[in-house]
Amino acid sequence: MNSKNLIISVYKTSISEKDLLNLKSVLDNFNKDIKWSTDLDDVENILRIESQYEIEKEIITSLQALK
Predict the structure, then answer these.
(1) Where residue 45 sits, what CATH number does that domain have?
(2) Which of 35, 39, 43, 58 could pair with 50 as two cysteines, CB 3.0-4.6 Å apart?
(3) Strand, helix or coil at 63?
(4) Tens digits of per-residue pLDDT, 20-35?
């Protein structure tokens, strides 16, 4: 991934350890090259996504579909 045009999005979430498998299946299946991580030790359960493309709406839609 070229860091020159990298878009980094950081989200406050309500995900938990039990949600990680579903989250992984959704985010790993994106057609675009993304890199993601979570920090569930943070009080805001952070989800961090790096991409070279504007994918915020796609991410939010996909994650809302998990509910």
Answers:
(1) 3.30.70
(2) 35
(3) helix
(4) 998 998 898 886 688 9
